[in-house]
Amino acid sequence: MGDPLDYDEQEARQEAAIYKTSAAADRRQRVRDLLHLQSGETVLSIGCGPGFEPLELARTVGDTGHVHGIDQSRAMLALAKRRCETLPQVTLTQADATRLPVMERAFDAVVAVQAYEYLDDVSTAVTELSRVLRPSGRAVICDADFASLVWRSPNPERMERVLDAFDDHCPQPRLGSKLEPYFRNTGLTIERVEPNSILNTNLDEDAFAYHLMQFITEYAADHDKIGPDEAQAWADDLHKCEEMGRRSSTSLSTSISFAKPSRLRQRAPSVDGVL
Q1: Phi then psi for 252, rounded to 5 degrees?
Q2: Could you say which of 45, 151, 225, 226 has the lowest number of CB atoms within 10 Å?
Q3: Is 188:198 a contact under the CB 8 Å cutoff?
Q4: How much is the pTM?
Q5: Strand 133-144 and strand 150-151: pairing?
Q6: What is the rounded average pLDDT of the residues 191-219?
Q7: Cα(42)–Cα(52) distance, integer angstroms
Q8: Are 38 and 61 in contact (CB under 8 A)?
Q9: 213-241 pLDDT, tens per residue?
Q10: Nearest Cα to 105, choosing from 133, 142, 129?
Q11: Which has the closest alpha carbon to 47: 103, 108, 122?
Q12: How many CA atoms lie within 13 A of 213 on its CB side?
């Protein structure tokens, strides 16, 4: 099995389809609401993917603001650059969340949606986030706990085997429910913790559940404990449920919003800039 973040062009396009769903768009809107962005602010998008997030953030902060999107995947960044090509206030860089290529206190806001769950070293990534956030800045982090993924199936044993195997697709499959302790002693204040749930009752091609099913099927087919035949049988089970009228799927992630207390009262200097 390859690195789930090492996309080729076709895989990146397939992954981008899930960003187009209404559920994904609603989540991005909720993240922007939590950030309380103002015109002219600077925002860092960690794990910016195919560019939907930096595009929408840039429209929010306007021509006088700036959005810096980073992603590990060249294929994803290629899509993001095409999507944001008319927005001069967007910068896109291939980079790792544990080694952010920016100076201290460079951003008014930072967002990372389902980025940290793909990291081996979450602690370093959190330290980096705190480093680049300005005093009085805000951050929103959203990660999934894949134990909350629920599907109806006529074969619950196969469902359990496939979802257990799917846990291997990222280093931190339970991070959504374990994220908060990583932010202790970082200089950040937790302002809000809330669930972000996605419920689909069908497998239409415009549904989040449909694209997630495709992703899991392809991953499981290449997993040494599942293989292509059982992976396809798992997907067929889901379609059978839909035909029988037993239609539901649920996924849940946790969103945490943070503030970095102003250090002006402590007479600490503020330094802005991008390397």
Answers
A1: -140, 135
A2: 225
A3: no
A4: 0.89
A5: unpaired
A6: 91
A7: 17
A8: yes
A9: 999 999 999 999 999 999 999 999 999 88
A10: 133
A11: 122
A12: 26
Q: In terms of Cα–Cα distance, which of 34, 48, 124 is closest to 79?
A: 48
User: Which CATH number applies to 9-145+170-197+252-262?
Assistant: 3.40.50.150
In whole angstroms, what is the distance from residue 58 CA to residue 216 CA? 32
Provide the β-strand partners of residue 92: 69
Would the CA dihedral through 201, 205, 206, 208 be positive or negative?
Answer: positive
* Cβ pair 116, 122 in contact under 8 A: yes
Q: Which tens digits make up the pLDDT trace of 35-68? A: 999 999 999 999 999 999 999 999 999 999 999 9
Name residue 125's beta-bridge partners.
none
Task: Compute the Cα dihedral for 135, 136, 137, 138 and give only its sign.
Answer: positive
Burial string for 87-101 (b: 16+ CB within 10 Å, else e) reads: bebbbbeebbbbebe
**Domain positions in the chain:** 9-145+170-197+252-262
> Which tens digit of pLDDT belongs to each residue from 140-155?
999 999 999 888 888 9
